[in-house]
Amino acid sequence: MTNLEEYYNKFNEEKRLNSRHGQIEYRISMDFIHQYLKPGDKIADIGAATGRYSIPLFEEGYDVTAVEPVQHNLGRLQKKCPQITAFKGNALKLKRLADNSFDAVIFFGPMYHLIGHEQKMQALLEAKRITKPGGHIFVAYIMNEYSVITYAFKERHILECMEEGRFDEDFQTVPKPDDLYDYVRLEEINRIKEEAGLLRKTILSPDGAANYMRPFLNQLTQEEFEQFIRYQRSVCERPELLGAGAHIVDILCKE
């Protein structure tokens, strides 16, 4: 069993996305996905987990193929929606998916767990390969400053991290080969996009400050919470806020 499989056998991704901070990420991400879809589009959800995105899109009538590396997650997805096309696979080698065959590719997991620039490039080029010309790729990343602020400072691991060489002099995280997550900054996201030869349509932070505010979000009334979602939707593309949130979604087009 890989580290990734062991982790997701214990981690409840559905619970995270159903939490209030997770709802913000999900609802805003879905809003942007729908902006680029057309009726009847073929969608590949790579790193589909338990189907949080792929199942609703399938139920809306899209032709969805879900690919997930963790058997536990895949089993839950298939149990919830037996009709969906889903199989076990790795974002680095999508051999079962043909060139130029999807109108949209959702890539909301692979970049979190692929360590280093080369693996990320290999995965994004695979996503590009299976995307039709004119199609869109939705790529999610987990951000460096979120890791530094929450784990290192808020949870008071900073001295331990410095002793172990977990950060460089600029507080960029330095991943080890067996780490589960690789945290990035905007310059790395831009580099990956440029080297892949993809056109950016927009880039956004779907959750913004939400992950820093979890206890406070839980105290809001539903009406107040809906206003926070409206707020985050209105500022999610502001360049001065992008790198500070927990996640980035880069919306790219294959020309």
TrEMBL record:
State if Cytoplasm is listed as a keyword. no
* MF terms in GO: S-adenosylmethionine-dependent methyltransferase activity
Q: In its UniProt entry, what is this protein called? A: Methyltransferase domain-containing protein
State whether keyword Ubl conjugation applies: no
Which terms under GO biological process does the entry name? methylation
Q: Which SUPFAM superfamilies match?
A: S-adenosyl-L-methionine-dependent methyltransferases (SSF53335)
Record's signal peptide: none
Q: Which residues form the Methyltransferase type domain?
A: 45-139
The record's keywords, sorted A to Z, are: Methyltransferase, Transferase
The organism named in the record is Eubacterium oxidoreducens
Alphabetized Pfam families for the sequence: Methyltransf_11
Listed Gene3D superfamilies = Vaccinia Virus protein VP39
